[in-house]
């Protein structure tokens, strides 16, 4: 009789936070090259899913699972040699102690079967074998225990600073939705509007806003982006919006995909500071990723790990209103690459 199985599995990063441990399973009719599977197994009657994942790691690898955090639940329906499987998987993150070596590691299943353990890169594009269950979106939201806020911020800036060319090349094309929002933003501000841009990066958005008649003050916390903008003939400033002088009297603030690197207390402070930088009636546009908590990601156009904070619409509205912004709209749209959603905000002082 077919049954739905309940599993508990773990995404276990290495110390360098570049890859996570998976088992390498043999070829099947559907995957002739084999496939990768998260480490873990079935939840037994009478145990919690957390107890199950800790037990499975201990039994299969002889390791302890440290700093286990429940990331979410995934429903996995799959075919294996013509048979349909159906699982509900509680997915954890955590650190293996000891960690499997880079070569020669193995795990032993409850039935005695032995399979290799390998390190799967966080850069899924470079991987030839599929991963089951499909947890790509969770892989790019991993917590990183033991890293304080200062290190989170420093590491995130350093990741962008070390890959300015890669990020600029990968984000050259303006997404259609951002183009539409920018056109409405420029129309509402009127001709010759002064715009403070937070997180100018390559300058793509600033160039488009200026093509619509605006005058953009380009800023970024990443020195490499500012250097590149200056080399291209633009005035640009290295600015930390949390602490540095932002100026005043702007008609609008444009902060596309940048405030998501602030934690929640910082977001409240920065929104207050941005409000002080614009005239009465001035506009704010910003975008953040939807979700709960925070995490690290190597997904996208930058090799290094960056820290993100995720937001739900009600809390985001609350923080904006508390900072003195009148929320005009918050639009939810899917991301272009991952199974993720974004919140696009337009607000007025």
CATH architecture group name of the largest domain: 3-Layer(aba) Sandwich
N→C terminal distance: 62 Å
Strand content: 35-45%
Helix run count: 9
Low-confidence stretches: none
Enter the CATH topology name of the largest domain.
Rossmann fold
N to C succession of SSEs: EEEHEEEEEHHHHEHEHEEHEEEHEE
Radius of gyration, in Å, reads 23 Å
Mean pLDDT: 95
Strand count: 17
Query: Share of helix among residues?
Result: 25-40%
**Major sheet attributes:** 8 strands, mixed
Number of domains: 2
**Category by helix and strand content:** alpha/beta
CATH superfamily of the largest domain: Vaccinia Virus protein VP39
What is the name of the CATH class of the largest domain?
Alpha Beta
Shape: elongated
């Amino acid at each position: 009789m077919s049954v739905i199985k309940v599993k508990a599995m773990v995404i276990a990063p290495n110390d360098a936070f570049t890859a996570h441990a998976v088992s390498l399973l043999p070829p099947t009719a559907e995957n002739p090259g084999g496939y990768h599977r998260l480490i873990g197994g079935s939840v037994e009657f009478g145990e919690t899913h957390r107890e199950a994942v800790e037990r499975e790691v201990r039994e299969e690898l002889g390791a302890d699972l440290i700093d286990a955090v429940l990331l979410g639940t995934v429903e996995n329906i799959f075919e294996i040699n013509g048979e349909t499987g159906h699982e509900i998987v509680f997915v954890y993150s955590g650190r293996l102690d000891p960690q499997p070596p880079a070569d020669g590691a193995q795990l032993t299943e409850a039935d005695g079967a032995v399979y290799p353990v390998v390190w799967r890169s966080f850069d899924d594009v470079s991987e030839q074998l599929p991963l089951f269950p499909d947890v790509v979106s969770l892989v790019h939201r991993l917590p990183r225990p033991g890293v304080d806020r200062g290190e989170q911020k420093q590491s995130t800036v350093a990741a962008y600073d070390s890959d300015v060319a890669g990020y600029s090349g990968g984000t050259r094309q303006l997404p259609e939705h951002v183009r539409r929002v920018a056109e409405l933003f420029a129309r509402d501000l009127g001709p010759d509007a002064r715009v403070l841009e937070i997180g100018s990066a390559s300058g793509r958005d600033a160039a488009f806003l200026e093509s619509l008649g605006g005058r953009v003050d380009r800023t970024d916390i990443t020195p490499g982006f500012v250097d590149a903008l200056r080399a291209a003939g633009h005035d640009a400033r290295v600015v930390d919006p949390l602490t540095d002088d932002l100026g005043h009297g702007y008609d609008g603030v444009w902060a596309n995909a940048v405030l998501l690197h602030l934690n929640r207390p910082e977001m409240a402070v920065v929104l207050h500071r941005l409000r002080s930088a614009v005239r009465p009636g001035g506009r704010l546009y910003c975008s953040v990723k939807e979700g709960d908590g925070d995490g690290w990601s190597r997904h996208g156009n930058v090799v290094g790990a960056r820290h993100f904070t995720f937001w739900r619409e009600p809390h985001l509205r609350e923080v904006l209103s508390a900072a003195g912004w009148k929320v005009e709209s918050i639009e939810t749209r899917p991301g272009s690459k991952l199974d993720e959603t974004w919140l696009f905000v337009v607000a007025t002082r």
